[in-house]
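Project standup — Tuesday

K.O.: blocked on the structure for the chain from last sprint. Re-posting the sequence here as requested.
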Amino acid sequence: MTLTLRAITRAEHLAFVAGRPSVSHMQVPSWGDVKPDWQAESLGWFEGDGRLVGAGLVLLRPLPRVKRYLAYLPEGPVIDWHATDLERWLDPLLAHLKRRGAFSVKMGPPVVTRRWSPEAVKAAIADPGAHRLRDVPGTSHEAAGLDLADRLRRMGWQQTEPGGEEGFAAGQPRYVCQVPFAGRTLEDVQRGLNQQWRRNIKKAEKAGVKVVRGGPEDLPVFYGLYTETAERDRFIPRPLQYFQRMWTALTAEHPDRMRLYLAHHDGEVLAAATMLIVGGHVWYSYGASTSRRREVQPNNAMQWRMMCDAHELGAHVYDFRGITDTLEESNHLLGLLRFKVGAGGEAVEYVGEWDFPLNRLLHKALDLYMARR
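H.V.: unblocked you, prediction finished:
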C-alpha cells in the first residue's frame, strides 16, 4: 500500500522522535530554527490507517536569483531504510519536494556500513602503506548498509562526498568516531581509554582542573576560545550569534537538548565544549581551547566529565562526530583522530550523502557554481 507524505506539526514531529531510541540532532524541529537562511519543514509518512510511521526535517535553500530550492535532509529522514520497497518511502518524498519547487534533493541516510575498532585504527595509522581509512578492511561490516548504497544507485540517487556546511556546500561527515556505551558500565568505558588518556585525566585532577556546566551567559567565553581554536586549526569560525541561536532554539524544545561545559584552572577557562542530546545519543558538538597551560590537560578532563554525564543520562553512544579519512602524518587533523580514538572510540562509516537531481540543468549549474567558489 502506498504511503502518504505531508507536512506535520512540530508537536507531531517531536512525539514521533520521542517514541524512538534516538534520531540525529539535525532531525528535530528546533534544528530548523538554528538555520535561519533555510526554510524548514517537518514531513511525515503515514500508513493507510493514519499511523505516522516516518518523519523528517527538510531544509530548503533558494538558488540565487531563482525561486527554486535545494532541499536537504541532514542525517535523515527517519524512515525504515531497510524496507524491501524503499521506493514506497522515497518516491512520495521526491514528489512532494518537486511540488515545493526543489530542483535537487540531498539526504544523509543514518545507516552504518563499516566499523573499525580503536585497535584497528591505531594499527592503520602506524602502517606506512595505509593512506586512507576507506582502504583499510573494517573490523565489522553492515550488510544492510552496503545493500542500501546499491539500491539507491539503482533508483537514480547519486552519492556525494561530504563538503562544508556554508552556503550550498551542505554536508555532514561520512566518517565519525563513536564510543559505544550500551551494556557497558562506566568502569568498562574507563578501561577503554588508552594509557595516555588515563594519564592525562590524572594530571588534570592533580593540577586542580575543574570542569563545570555553563549557561547561555558563558557562551562569549566559549566563543573567545573557539575563535582562537579556529585560527590555530585553520578553519572559518561561525559567529557568536550562531551558538546563541542554537542554545535558544534547542533548549526551548527540550531543556536538556544542549549543554555547555567549561574547564577551569587557576581562575581561567582553558577549554569549553558543547554537547547535544537526543534520546540515547549524545554528541560532542563544538570544542574550543587555548594554547596556554596545555600541560594541565583540560581537554581530557572536560571530555571525561562529558562522557561520565552522558553515561549517567543512560546514553547508548557518545559521539565525537567527524574524523578525517586520511591517515597521512602530514594532515593536521590526524592528531584529532588519535585523540578521539584514544578515548575508546571506534571509527564508523555511514552510507554517506546522496543527491537526486529533479532538474538536471539547475543541479549541474549548482555544481558549477560551487566549483567556482
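K.O.: great, moving the ticket to review. Residues 163-170 have pLDDT under 50 and may be disordered. The CA atoms of residues 199 and 221 lie 28 Å apart.
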